[in-house]
Design goal:
The structure holds two protein chains of two kinds. By secondary structure, chain A is of the alpha+beta class. Chain A contains 14 helices and 13 strands. In chain A, about 50% of the residues are buried. Classes of the chains: A alpha+beta, B mainly alpha.
């Protein structure tokens, strides 16, 4: 049996990956630009990593490992500056947002790398329809058992993270009525959803081994779970966020997840049983569909309230942990989102203004550049 | 035969045969054939049909029918140049000034190289300069049509469009100025020498500016609905073409500036990016077919040696210009070589310039015309091939579009 070793990492360290849209400055549609951009970026030193993704209209930027919000947001801003310097000289627009509002999936070109080709052959139109843009947040865990604890404990708070980051209301040219339509594209894959309820790293290895022997997966990369362990980094990877419209917001969301993790590790506020997943898909749907106004059901307590109220209710227990981590500024940004609306709402308001999806994308490009 | 009155009188009907429709049909079929079996750009088929049916071929499409199609040709050129102008993002030149330098250098070196070749074959310096200036321009219609057909996107495609728009503008300005010098030798009235190019250049810019302002005013009222904007734009472009013609201003320069200025003035982004779709394609087919019909293919052989040299000089000059500044303009050498190839096409606009020149100054003799037309004929065929090759090799085309 081939065992996955869980690398030790500094507990509660964090890192962020962002998938970004590359758009034409002429018509604001997605454009073929990743190779040209990466070729130029390879020539100049820049912080973080900038890598190709499944289509030519997407790139992924990732930060190093951070212990606090301040250095994370600083690095993300530096990466943005390096990226924009090159993108502007190539006349390419860079935008956040979980999905491009009006691109047509049939027109996307798959990058020329072997794995990308394989995915597109296996998944057909799903691979192209998967032109959606997410943020992944890694949280460091001391060992595999702790990672699985955090994974299950954190799953109760996924609706919070989805509602806060929702930024894909428009997809293929229509208002989907969802705040995060992106996650619907992820659900179509056979190995999406949640990880199995195993609580020790040994049990996880046994599960992984069965799946591999059965030929269902070849590596951990084949699981498209909402949260998955990343043994080579010693982290859990939270993958439900839509890419926000600014890097500042991306950093704030990561810091909020980090504060949740610290609280969950230190105070162990919930007993983790399989019941965690009773309302999982219901709450998750509510978050995707209605965002902060979605309904959150807590089956154990029998309570139901809005996801926005749920988020505000976490501030009380999180306060001390946010202070410890130096994430107070991030927490007030999260509060501003709950009170002022998420990116999906901002996008709907801009569209109501102009009645033009290309114009909306243009504003997303400007907002990403200005960072506010 | 009064009892057979219902049978048609074919002899009378034949004189009114809808040549345009037949030309369109033949060209469309040839274009599909070229695309499907030879995997080459459709427009080669359109040019071939024009050449075969035209006065230099079977003469089914004689000079009279061609003259009757002239207004269609003008609107087609207008649409193409407007769209090209609208695609050019002048702010890109601000963000990457080396692109402007590249553009000036490739135009300058191509001009210089062609000028030297023409002097070497004993052309009078001024005439050589006019011919070389005509050669600065890359064919806008070819670059637009082929990039669209291949659904090409990326740095090579975007820069090809940008450099084409710029070198077409340079060509018109240079030709206007040189023609005035030519006038000095033949007419001698200083008012014409100074006045004519100034009128041509600033007149087109002023007219373009006026049209752009009116257009944006109208679109603001109309809103961003694509259909409404489409109708409005086709009508405005046709009007602009007519106005430029009536004012004796260069249609191409006016329309190029019109498109460019719409983009520059449009701070509120009310203009939605249009492509002129099927209507545009019909006009393009006719444009290329008429270009093919107007080309005297027999001169291809007559001026072959000098024409070939001219073509080589032009390609070398453009390549040197694009390659020497490539690292500064942020483009790898491999892609820059491909970009240089995309600038090869030459056709419609060059023919227009040539006609305008020889109409104004008949001394633009047949010997020179033979060389230039021979070069144009070669590039009409070679240009689209190199363009397709370059875009494909750059990996910027869409497999499914081919």
């Amino acid at each position: 049996m081939e065992r996955l070793e869980f690398t030790k990492s500094a507990p509660l360290s964090m890192g962020v990956e962002l998938e970004l849209q590359l758009v034409s400055r002429r018509d604001c549609d997605l454009t073929r630009a990743a190779s040209d951009l990466l070729a130029q970026l390879a020539k100049r030193p820049h912080p973080g990593e900038i890598k190709p993704e499944i289509t030519e209209s997407m790139i992924e930027v990732s930060t190093g490992v951070h212990t606090g919000y301040e250095t994370l947001v600083a690095e993300l801003r530096e990466i943005r500056a390096a990226l924009l310097a090159v993108a502007e000289s190539l006349n390419v627009g860079v935008a956040g947002g979980g999905a491009h509002p009006f691109q047509h999936w049939s027109q996307r070109r798959i990058m020329d790398a072997a794995r990308m080709k394989h995915l597109s052959q296996l998944y057909g139109y799903l691979a192209k329809q998967f032109t959606v843009f997410g943020q992944h947040v890694h949280i460091g865990c001391p060992d595999g058992d702790d990672a699985l604890y955090l994974l299950h404990a954190m799953s109760r708070y996924l609706p919070h993270l989805i509602a806060l980051s929702g930024s894909s209301p428009y997809y293929q040219g229509v208002d989907t009525a969802f705040d995060s339509s992106r996650l619907n594209a992820v659900f179509a894959f056979p190995l999406s959803g949640r990880a199995p309820f195993v609580q020790t790293w040994d049990d996880f290895n046994a599960y992984y081994d069965k799946m591999r022997r059965a030929g269902i997966v070849a590596s951990m990369k084949d699981f498209y779970w909402d949260i998955r362990p990343k043994p080579e980094y010693g982290t859990i990877e939270i993958r439900v966020f839509d890419t926000p419209l600014t890097v500042d917001r991306a950093a704030a969301l990561a810091a909020y997840a980090q504060a949740l993790a610290r609280w969950l590790f230190v105070e162990r506020p919930h007993r983790v049983t399989e019941d965690v997943y009773l309302a999982y898909t219901y709450n998750r749907f509510q978050a995707c569909r209605f965002g902060l106004e979605g309904e959150f059901i807590e089956p154990a307590a029998g309570t139901r309230r809005s996801i926005g109220e749920e988020i505000l209710a976490t501030f009380e227990p999180l306060g001390v942990h946010a202070r410890e981590l130096g994430a107070e500024a991030a927490l007030s940004e999260i509060e501003a989102i709950v009170r002022g609306g998420n990116d999906a709402r901002w996008m709907r308001e801009r569209y109501a203004d102009s009645q033009s999806l290309p114009d909306l994308v243009w504003r997303q490009v400007e907002r990403f550049r200005e960072g506010r | 035969m009064p009892e057979l009155f219902f049978l048609p009188d074919l002899a009378a009907a034949a004189s009114q045969l809808p040549w345009t429709a037949l030309l369109l049909l033949a060209a469309a079929l040839a274009g599909e054939a070229v695309q499907r079996w030879l995997r080459l750009p459709r427009l080669l088929g359109w040019i071939a049909v024009g050449g075969a049916l035209g006065p230099h071929g079977l003469d089914l499409l004689d000079r009279v029918s061609l003259a009757a199609l002239r207004p269609v040709l003008d609107v087609a050129v207008g649409l193409v140049l407007f769209e090209l102008g609208e695609r050019v993002d002048l702010s890109w030149l601000r963000r990457n000034p080396w692109l402007l330098a590249t553009s000036l250098l490739e135009a300058g070196l191509a001009f210089g190289a062609m000028f030297v070749v023409l002097l070497a074959v004993d052309t009078a310096p001024l005439l050589a300069a006019v011919a070389a200036a005509i050669g600065i321009s890359t064919a806008p219609a070819v670059v637009l049509t082929v990039t669209r057909e291949l659904r090409a996107q990326g740095q090579v495609s975007e820069r090809a469009l940008l450099l084409t728009a710029l070198n077409t503008a340079y060509a018109f300005v240079a030709v206007s100025v040189l023609l005035a010098w030519l006038a000095r030798e033949y007419a001698g009235d200083w008012r014409a020498i100074v006045g004519h190019p100034v009128y041509l250049i600033f007149g087109s810019l002023a007219l373009a500016g006026a049209f752009a302002a009116v257009t944006l005013g109208l679109l603001r009222v109309l809103g961003r609905r694509r259909d409404a904007q489409f109708l409005c734009m086709v009508a405005l472009i046709a009007l602009a073409v007519w106005t430029a013609g009536a004012l004796k201003l260069p249609v191409a320069l006016t329309l190029l500036a019109y498109g460019g200025l719409v983009r520059v003035f449009d701070r509120r982004r009310v203009y939605v990016s249009l492509d002129f779709g099927r209507v545009g394609t019909i006009l393009l087919i006719l444009l290329f077919a008429i270009t093919g019909a107007n080309t005297d293919w027999s001169l291809l052989a007559t001026g072959a040696v000098a024409g070939g040299l001219l073509v080589a000089a032009r390609i070398a000059g453009k390549a040197a210009g694009v390659l020497s500044l490539a690292p500064l303009a942020r483009m790898p050498v491999r892609k820059a070589s491909l970009l240089a190839l995309t600038l090869t096409p030459m056709s419609g606009v060059a023919v227009v310039l040539l006609h305008e020149t020889s109409a104004l100054y008949p001394s633009f003799g047949p010997a020179l015309a033979a060389i230039v037309i021979s070069a144009i004929a070669m590039l009409e065929l070679l240009g689209p091939l190199l363009l397709q090759f370059a875009l494909t090799r750059a990996g910027e085309t869409d497999d499914e579009a081919r």
